[in-house]
Amino acid sequence: MKDFSGKIAFITGGASGAGLGQAKLFAKEGMKIVIADVRQDALDCAVQEIIEYGAAKDDVLAIKVDLTDRAAYTAAADKTEQVFGGPPHLLIQTAGVNAFGPAEASTFDDYDWVMGVCLNAVINGLVIFVPRMIKAYAGKTSCHVAVTSSMGAFRGGATTAPYSAAKAAVNSLMYSYYEALKPYGFGATAVCPANIRSNIGEAEKLRPANLKNTGYNVSEKTMGVLNAIHAHGMDPLVLAGWLKEAIENDQVICMPYDNNQEIMRGHAEYIFNLSSPEGMKRNEALDKEREKQREEMMKLAPQEDVGFAKARSDLDWVDPARKF
Ligand code: NAI
Question: From atom 8 of ligand 1, which residue's Cα is the shortest distance away?
């Protein structure tokens, strides 16, 4: 997809962070923008920001929706068609949440919440929108589906199990949809950043009441650690620029860094190494390198040990070094 002007973009998580950056950038390209998010206050502020950035008031539609609710997501799709006269040409599913702690401490609620937003809601969007997009636009004009994935998609870590699993799955979905949608002239992209300047550090505040039983140590202080790390992340507008270029080039993966080929080769090598005894030894060295990078990242956060990414203290099967 290379032509954006006059077309419709539906951006989930568009009230904040990466999604808001995408909304601004594609508004500037002359698109009609729908931002779908669960937070009304953030939606209201985001609409103002997008208009101040140059969008016409009538070209921005904000919809409050919990994207894990299929009926509500379908209603948001209907509303988009009512207001803008058709389904989106560009679907960018960016809404996401995170939660970190030892894999062995993870509860059903941790999996259901993180994978519910980061994976199941993405599936909802694809099932709801793709048939509408094909019916409306196949053979007439180009369209694209994209998802904001993560660098974590390529490699699960000890404290990122639900998040990495969800992101690996959405990458896989984009590989599938890329192949499936090619005959219709549509593309598919997963953008895989490491760190974005955003509000995701506050995500725990969005955890629904029925999914509160986390196995992780979560507090205002652990959220403070995340906020400090994400304050140093990539500017959402810069990230949106990388995504736009990848959409124009019909790339399935967008690794939004200048040394993206080197990064991707590193991931490929690590995965290759997992399949032989010699490779497992080689990965020990790569693991040490990764641990150094993690330590560097943690220097961005408050130095006091607040038990970030550790387990709840009462989980008696978890290694004490991994509990708080
Ligand atoms: P953010 O918190 O600023 O934006 C995420 C938005 O998703 C929020 O506005 C939130 O209200 C919305 N949301 C959460 N649950 C929802 C639900 N059930 N229904 C509707 N909306 C919901 O965070 P950020 O960082 O901009 O996140 C965007 C995406 O980027 C996420 O998928 C995240 O996993 C991904 N990502 C973020 C990284 C980072 O360093 N911040 C790094 C790599 C990927």
Answer: 13
